[in-house]
Design a protein that fits this description.
The protein has 437 residues and is mainly α. The protein contains 16 helices and 11 strands. The chain has a single domain, classed as Glycosyltransferase (Alpha/alpha barrel). β10 (392-393) and β11 (400-401) form a beta hairpin.
Length: 437
């Protein structure tokens, strides 16, 4: 399925539903591809970064000009990147969106380098990517600190990647939706309406995106600005990765290490909520935490400098009644099982996703929770195969939802198969029917 999605320079997440290149999808796909083709993994990231804007942002979609405009919405003629984004330095040779996605890229680049350091050095892979990745982080840290507390804000739910999370409902309620007649939802051609965002939510997404476009993609306080724990945790993890890349290239790394630790402190100060036992999103415009438990608030478990007591609390929350890992659920649900907005099938409002479970498997292992990490790894591998590598699954029944043969599901399965824990002799057979990526 990764072969079927390969365009020659990048991998589409899904030929039907997502026929272009997506930013954080490509980072996860490269992490898996490095085990079977380090060159393709390097090319995946190089293609994405070739579409970087002059202000440093990496757009969330790089459009394939051979795909018909009506195959996906919002299409290139909606974003109008080369004209509306001219002041922000949008590229002229390729069409992109104007918003971003979580910064997993430096982490992915470092892992891809480790897969074949000789090839990486011979091609100058890190030498070429490092300045682009540094510019990407500068953009986020300098242009997107909209709350003034050192953390990055997202200005659209699509930027955070967990598009339809109930965590966005409160700030989205301030947004006047675009009229339904002003757009056509191509996503409903490939998925059940019961699994996708509602027309009301989609109208709000379109309004936010069109307003941002009409401002020339200039960053500043608007109707929607949210400090999200997962987005910031992934930036911190990538800052640590950039420090390692700098050392590999013989450059100074201590400033990046220090920045990662300062960002971790800011994350705890601004987004940790003791009564919830996890991190919460902050509504920057309202100046308050959003009282919804989403999987985003568990992702900081990835961070090595997270205080030990907070890491232990996150593990208890992950395995407690709100997320049920190891008890009622085998993979991590995207939203609070006990929340009023929980829906086991609707996009990011309850289903379990493979990329967030992969991140939390790494976090559990990092903080010494080997048994729980091993169990989650086995759950990911079994569910990936049994669901035909679904985009996401019902957290209780593991029923496949969304697209099947999904890019990052196949890629992260490859990664877990390759990096087997010591003593696990059955990693390959953990997938029902064997690997099909």
């Amino acid at each position: 399925m990764l072969e079927a999605g390969w365009t020659g320079t990048s991998t589409v997440p899904s030929r039907g539903l997502y026929p272009h290149q997506w930013s954080w999808d490509s980072a996860f796909i490269a992490i898996g591809l490095r085990h079977v083709s380090p060159l393709r993994a390097q090319t995946e990231l190089e293609t994405l970064l070739a579409a970087q804007w002059a202000d440093g942002r990496i757009p969330h979609i790089v459009f394939n000009p051979s795909v018909p405009l009506d195959a996906y919405f919002p299409s290139p003629d909606f974003w109008r990147s080369s004209t509306a984004g001219r002041a922000a330095g949008a590229p002229r040779t390729v069409q992109t969106s104007g918003i971003v996605q979580p910064p997993v890229h430096a982490l992915a680049a470092w892992l891809v380098h480790l897969a074949d350091p000789g090839l990486s050095r011979a091609r100058g892979f890190l030498t070429r990517l490092y300045p682009r990745l540094a510019a990407w982080h500068r953009y986020l840290l300098h242009r997107r600190d909209l709350g003034g507390g050192g953390l990055v804000s997202v200005v659209h739910p699509w930027e955070q990647g967990m598009d339809n999370s109930p965590c966005w409902d409160r700030p989205l309620s301030r947004v006047t939706p675009a009229p339904a007649r002003s757009f056509r939802r191509a996503d409903l051609d490939h998925g059940s309406p019961e699994d996708r965002p509602t027309d009301l939510d989609y109208g709000r997404y379109v309004r936010l995106a069109s307003d941002y476009r009409d401002r020339g993609y200039a960053d500043g306080p608007g109707d929607f600005a949210v400090e999200d724990p997962a987005f910031n945790a992934l930036l911190i993890a990538s800052e640590y990765a950039l420090a390692r890349i700098a050392r590999e290239l013989g450059a100074a790394a201590s400033a990046r290490q220090d920045r990662a630790e300062r960002l971790t402190t800011a994350l705890v100060e601004r987004l940790w909520e003791p009564s919830a036992g996890m991190f919460l999103c902050r509504d920057v415009r309202a100046g308050e935490l959003i009282p919804e438990r989403g999987v985003s608030g568990l992702v900081p478990l990835l961070l090595p400098s997270l205080p030990r007591d907070l890491a232990a609390t996150l593990v208890r929350t992950l395995c407690g009644p709100h997320f049920g890992l190891g008890g009622t659920t085998r993979l991590v649900p995207s939203y609070d099982l006990l929340g009023e907005a929980f829906d086991p099938h609707r996009y990011w409002r309850g289903p379990a996703w493979f990329n967030t479970s992969w991140l939390l498997e790494r976090g559990l292992r990092l903080h010494g929770e080997r048994g729980r990490a091993d169990a989650l790894r086995r759950g990911i591998l079994h569910t990936a195969g049994a669901s035909d590598f679904a985009e996401y699954v019902d957290p209780y029944t593991a029923q496949a939802c969304g697209a099947t043969g999904f890019g990052w599901t196949a890629a992260l399965t490859l990664d877990l198969l390759h990096d087997r824990p010591a003593g696990d002799r059955n990693g390959v057979t953990a997938i029902k029917g064997g690997h099909r990526g």
